[in-house]
Amino acid sequence: MPNRKQPGLTAQLKDKLIQQALEKKLKRAEKSDIAASPTRRTGAALDNISEQFCSFSLHPGYQQIRIINGGAERMGIENPFFRTHGGVAGATTIIQGKQYLNYASYNYLDCSGDPQVNMAAQKAIDRYGTSVSASRLVSGERPVHRQLEKALAQFYEVDEAIVLVSGHATNVTTIGYLFGPRDLVLHDDLIHNSILQGISLSGARRLPFAHNDWQALEAILNEQRHHFERVLIVVEGLYSMDGDFPELPRYIELKKKYKAFLMVDEAHSLGVMGERGGGIREHFGVAGSEVDIWMGTLSKTLAGCGGYIAGETALIEHLKFLVPGFLYSVGMSPPLAAASLKALSILQQEPERVAALQRNGQLFLKLAREAGIDVGTSEGLAVIPVITGSSIRAARLSAALFARRINVLPILYPAVPEKAARLRFFVSCRHTEAQIRETVEILSEELDRL
Fold it and tell me: What gap in Å lies between CA 97 and CA 386, rounded to an integer?
């Protein structure tokens, strides 16, 4: 396997010095925020309250954004975020009137923009309008909601399912409601932010374990299980940063042995893993009932927007009447529910899309490894990271590829550790072999130029 060329010493040293300067500024901003914390003396005069506590322009988060953006501007790196797409974002996309090869969308099976999905959404608008205008509990219930939920339950071979209007909020509200201060949540070290937010809301004790390391999980369970009432184990079906997955049967064994609940977030594995796109459950051949909480999103393979929970009747009925993110939220927009319902049908009726997606992912991974590109632990299932080793290199590589009509976004510090900064390539079933070969060839060239 050939080695990647190392950047010139002068450019490498310059990048390092700039990065160190940015990190120092961020640390100073954080220290300043701590030092300026308001005193809690009773009757403290209002004029002693710092201006930064009543101005969003002085909020430490905003100050950090300004430091990062300012550094990028000084280095001549264009902001790659919030680019406006002029149409459906699939294997290709239109940005500012130009066509690009697109690796920045989760439209894995090309269902978003599919004529059948569009027609289903249009019919739902004609019949139900664009909004149900109320919580489903009171007057927002529509037949398409229950049709989608029944289809999801059947897909997972479990009792019931519930759909919510946001994938992120689905994790936050479900974990935040079901667990509390006497409980423990154990999660993979690379788990999604929505899981962490849900744990924080719940007040439960939170303990991470090493990525995809079921043995590390068991060590924690063996030591901690008896200290808590309920214990929840949370993993993802396919990790969107690294493109790898857990050995699910091992986690099922542990949850049974230690009398814990197991939750699997299938946001990126539904439609991607398994011979027919059945997700990590099909990949390992496990029954739907072996996992207590199946979670997924409707915005990727299923071409809509929102999230779902699937599981036993007691879980779903409980959530329908009491979980805040469902009870106090408007019901899902009918066209979105109809779109996801049709996309789920396409997934089941057209397994050739899944086969094409998996074939494309494997080809991309193979070519990248042959070129000596660092793809980490990716399994080549739709998600392939390219590790650059620094945020500056990641941003520059993204810009160089964009200049050559390839749209792929960088993941920078602090979203990932600095040494793990990367580009993430999301492959579609509609990418052609020629497009993938061209992409990896250009990627290799631009990496050599850095």
Answer: 27
Backbone torsions φ then ψ of 323, nearest 5 degrees: -70, 125
Domain with CATH 3.90.1150.10 in the chain: 92-108+351-449
Q: What global pTM score does this model have?
A: 0.89
Domain 115-349, architecture per CATH: 3-Layer(aba) Sandwich (3.40)
Residue 93 neighbours by CB under 8 Å, 6+ apart: 85, 86, 87, 99, 100, 102, 104, 105, 407
Lookup result for tokens 């990048």: 15
Q: Classify domain 92-108+351-449 at the CATH class level.
A: alpha beta
Between 115-128 and 334-349, two packed helices, what is the crossing angle to 10 degrees?
A: 150
Structure letter (DSSP) for residue 47:
G
What sign does the dihedral 342-323-310-186 (CA atoms) show? positive
Q: How many C-beta atoms surround the C-beta of residue 399 within 10 A?
A: 17
State the burial class of residue 208 (Cβ atoms within 10 Å of its Cβ: 0-12, 13-18, 19+): middle
Q: What is the pLDDT of residues 215-260, one digit of tens each?
A: 999 999 999 999 999 999 999 999 999 999 999 999 999 999 999 9
Q: Which residues are the active-site residues?
A: 240, 268, 300
